[in-house]
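Hi, here's the filled form for the chain we discussed.

Project: internal
Contact: R.S.
Residues: 306
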Amino acid sequence: MKKTALVIMAAGIGSRFGGGIKQLEPVGPGGEIIMDYSIHDAMEAGFDRIIFVIRHDLEKDFKEIIGNRIEKIAPVSYAFQELTDIPQGFRVPEGRKKPWGTGQAILSIRNLVKEPFLVINADDYYGKEAFAKIHDYMVNTMDENAPVYDICMGGFILANTLSENGGVTRGVCEVGENGILKRVTETYNIFRQEGGLSATDKAGNPVVVKEEQYVSMNMWGLTPAFLSELERGFPQFLSTLPEDDISSEYLLPTIIDQMIRENRACVHVLETKDRWFGVTYREDKKSVTEAIGELIRQGVYPSRLF
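And the returned structure, exactly as it came back:
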């Protein structure tokens, strides 16, 4: 069977572990964090190995908290996303503190993968269905040599990805009748209000979104060749930035949306009706813990994962 890898983007974890680091908040009865459930579901679906994308300054603590534990049950590799890892001829603007976004995060694995890989966020709970569907697609359908990039994504229902404690940002998708992604638009401050949903564009202007729309949760199934696309596009992205820009990011949804518009990618949206959980706000932890507890009571997970 074709080999597959799971890539977990965790470089956004704060430089100090402990209270306040949302990716490491225990949500399971055995102290499990959200990443544990993603790894469990991915391995159950058939993924062969794990690649953590972190920062060098987190390596020691990250391995102590999760990496060493996961190494006992699956092959594990590490890639490092660093602010200074940029193409020759460019410099880091004075005052910039954060790395360059999810596109740069995935570019950091370019010397580690030769097989199709699935990208996820460290702090999102995705559910079992999406992992199973994406793995099946990657193994049985994905064409690594297609003339346009063959990509798949977990298509979550917007209503299943909202927080009760504030607005969220989502990549809202326009999908054709054949399940092919036509467009993904970053949409901000989405929350329920009386009469429907409220949302804005990046400039704060109101936009219309519907509960049944598909959204991207940064769950992308990609081929190794896609890394060459990221490598070509990164200097192009940097060259468009003003010299004093300290916040713009090289983002996977934006990159893939542009490729779709240029007919260089075909993205298959694989629907999942699982509910997303995440600790976007401090208040979310209680509801996430309760939701995990209910899944355990239903027999979806054992009380102790590993």
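Let me know if anything looks off before we file it.
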